[in-house]
Design brief:
The protein is of the alpha/beta class and about 500 residues long. Helix content is about 40%, strand content about 20%. A hairpin with a 5-residue loop joins β17 and β18 (about 420-430). The longest helix is centred in the last third of the chain and has 36 residues, at about 450-485.
Length: about 500
C-alpha cells in the first residue's frame, strides 16, 4: 500500500520524528503538518522527493483541512502536555475534535492514533483518561480510527527512559510510592514504529480497530529500575516503597532529580498507579515482529546515545513563543564582541557546542544558577542537549531553547528558566579579511515589573566575568576546531525564522 499518501501530525515530536523517515524509506509519500515547520527544516529526510512539510495550527480547521487534502491516511501523534501544562487534557480533547473535523472535510480515509495503555474504570489516572478521551474525539466525525495503546516507550531520548536513567543514576537508595510494585509492559520505540507502519501495510485488518501493544516481558517498575542500574553498571539500588508518598510529592521528587518539570511529571506519576499490561495480543498476528525485552530496549537506547545517533528527544516538542505580551518595554542589553583569528565556520561550530556535557564558561556559576532554577520549578541544566555538536531550531539546550539559527552566521537562544522577564542570548558571526571573524555576543533582558528590574541589577555585576569568559572560551574552541577539523557541511544546522523582535531591537 506504499502508493497512498500519508499525513503525519506530530512530526516534530519524539515518535513522529522517527516515524517519518521510516515511512519514506518504505516508499510512502509523506506530508508533515506542523505548527512550526522550521523545526523540521534541517532533518536529513526533508530533501527526500516524497517528503513535504506544511504549516497549520491544529486550532485552525480551514487551514488544516487544506493541508490534509490529498492524504489517504493520517497519523495523529500530538500531545499538549509540554505546551499546555495542567490544562493539557482539555487542550488535547479540543484539538483532536478539530483534527477529526478537518480530516473528514479533507477526505482522509482513516486516522491512526498512538494512545495510552490502561485498564478502564473510575481509578484511571487523568493522563490515561485523557488519552482515551482523545480516541473518542477522533472518532467523533465517523472516520475509521485505528488506535494503538502503548505503555512505557523505551528509547534514547524518550521521557520514560530519561526518568528511569536519572532516578537510578542519582539515587542509590530510593524511597518510592507503592506504585513500584505495579505491573508494566514496556515497549521499545523500534517495535512501536513497526506497529505504526504495519497498520498501513494491513489496512483491512487494522482499520477501525483498537490494539494493545507492549514488549516481550511484564515487570513491576522496581524490576525495570534494577535492570536500568545493571545496564548502567551501578551497584545495587535499594528501593523502599512507602504508602504515604502521593503523586504530587512524587512529581516534585521526579522534577528535582530528572530533567522533567513537575507539570509533566505529575500526570505521569499518577498514571504509574494503573497496571499497563496488554490484554489483547491480536496485533502480533497482523504485524508479526520480534518484540524486544526491557533489557534489550534499554541496551538499544544506550547504543544510540553512545554512537551519537539520537534522532529525537522528548524535549524537542517545546513551544516556540512569539514576542512577549509586554513587547515594547525597556530592554536591557549586554553586548560584547571579539575578533577571532579563525574562519567563520569554526566559530559557528564552537558556538553550536555550548552547553550540555560540553559545559559553559564559568561552569560553576551556571551550575548554581541551574540548581536555583530547578528549585524554583524551572528546567535547570538537566535537559542537556540531544547531540554534543549539532543544534536544530526548536531544540532545548539546558534551560534555553534555540529560536534562531543561521548556518555560519547566527545562533539565538531564548531562556526557559524561571525569570521575572524575558531573556535572549544571541551570537552573531561576521567574516573578516584574511580568514578572521568577529564574534558578537548580546544578552537581552526585558524585565517584568519591579522584580524584573531588581533581578537584572542583581546579576549584572557577574556579567563581565561570565560573558567575557564565554567569549574567550568560544575563541579558544574555534582555534582548536580550525586546527583539527575541516568545515562541516551545511546540513549540520538549519536556517530558521528570524529570532524574536526583542533580539533585533
Amino acid at each position: 500500500m506504499a502508493g497512498q499518501h500519508i499525513a503525519v501530525l506530530g512530526a516534530t515530536g519524539y515518535v513522529g520524528g522517527r516515524l517519518v523517515p521510516r515511512l519514506l524509506q518504505a516508499g510512502y509519500p509523506v506530508r508533515c503538518i506542523a505548527r512550526y515547520p522550521a523545526k523540521l527544516a534541517e532533518r536529513d529526510w526533508t530533501s527526500h522527493p516524497n517528503a513535504q512539510i506544511a504549516q497549520a495550527d491544529l486550532d485552525d480547521v480551514p487551514a488544516l483541512t487544506a493541508q490534509l487534502k490529498g492524504c489517504d491516511s493520517a497519523f495523529y501523534l500530538v500531545h499538549s502536555m509540554l505546551a499546555a501544562g495542567s490544562e493539557y487534557a482539555a487542550k488535547d480533547r479540543k484539538i483532536a475534535e478539530s483534527f477529526a473535523q478537518a480530516a473528514r472535510d479533507a477526505g482522509v480515509k482513516r486516522i491512526i492514533y498512538l494512545g495510552g495503555l490502561g485498564e478502564l474504570g473510575s481509578d484511571l489516572s487523568e493522563h490515561l483518561r485523557s488519552r482515551q478521551e482523545v480516541e473518542t474525539a477522533l472518532r467523533s466525525t465517523g472516520l475509521p480510527v485505528t488506535v494503538l495503546r502503548a505503555a512505557m516507550i523505551i528509547g534514547s531520548g524518550s521521557a520514560s527512559f530519561e526518568i528511569l536513567r536519572y532516578l537510578v543514576n542519582r539515587l542509590p537508595v530510593m524511597v518510592t510510592p507503592k506504585w513500584v510494585t505495579t505491573e508494566c509492559q514496556p515497549i521499545s520505540i523500534d517495535n512501536v514504529l513497526q506497529y505504526l507502519i504495519g497498520c498501513l501495510d494491513h489496512p483491512h485488518a487494522t482499520q477501525g480497530e483498537t490494539f494493545d501493544i507492549g514488549g516481550a516481558d511484564v515487570l513491576p517498575y522496581s524490576a525495570i529500575m534494577r535492570i536500568m542500574a545493571e545496564e548502567l553498571r551501578l551497584p545495587k539500588r535499594w528501593i523502599i516503597p512507602v504508602p504515604v508518598l502521593t503523586p504530587r510529592l512524587s512529581s516534585y521528587w521526579i522534577h528535582l532529580v530528572t530533567p522533567l518539570s513537575a507539570d509533566i511529571a505529575r500526570p505521569l506519576a499518577e498514571g504509574l498507579r494503573n497496571p499497563v499490561v496488554c490484554r489483547d495480543k491480536r496485533i502480533l498476528n497482523i504485524v508479526p515482529q520480534r518484540l524486544l525485552s526491557t533489557r534489550e530496549a534499554i541496551q538499544a537506547a544506550f547504543q544510540q546515545i553512545e554512537s551519537m545517533e539520537v534522532e529525537t528527544s522528548w524535549s524537542m516538542a517545546g513551544h516556540i513563543p512569539g514576542d512577549p505580551d509586554w513587547a515594547g518595554g525597556k530592554v536591557f542589553r549586554d553586548a560584547r564582541s571579539m575578533d577571532v583569528e579563525t574562519p567563520d565556520w569554526s566559530v559557528y561550530q564552537a558556538v553550536c557546542r555550548i552547553g550540555g556535557r560540553n559545559g559553559w564558561a564559568m561552569g560553576w556559576l551556571w551550575k548554581i544558577r541551574g540548581v536555583l532554577d530547578r528549585l524554583a520549578g524551572g528546567p535547570g541544566l538537566r535537559r542537556g542537549r540531544r547531540h554534543p555538536t549539532q543544534l536544530r531550531f526548536g531544540e532545548a539546550l539546558d534551560f534555553w531553547r534555540v529560536v534562531g539559527i543561521e548556518h555560519n552566521r547566527r545562533l539565538t537562544l531564548r531562556a526557559e528558566m524561571r525569570l521575572p522577564g524575558e531573556a535572549v542570548l544571541d551570537f552573531e558571526i561576521e567574516p573578516l579579511a584574511n580568514g578572521k571573524s568577529r564574534l558578537s555576543q548580546t544578552a537581552l533582558f526585558q524585565p517584568r515589573g519591579l522584580l524584573g528590574l531588581m533581578y537584572w541589577w542583581a546579576v549584572y555585576p557577574f556579567h563581565h566575568f561570565v560573558f567575557q569568559k564565554m567569549l574567550e572560551g568560544l575563541a579558544h574552541d574555534a582555534l582548536r576546531i580550525t586546527n583539527s577539523t575541516t568545515p562541516r557541511p551545511k546540513s549540520m544546522a538549519s536556517e530558521s525564522p528570524s529570532p524574536p523582535s526583542m533580539a533585533r531591537s
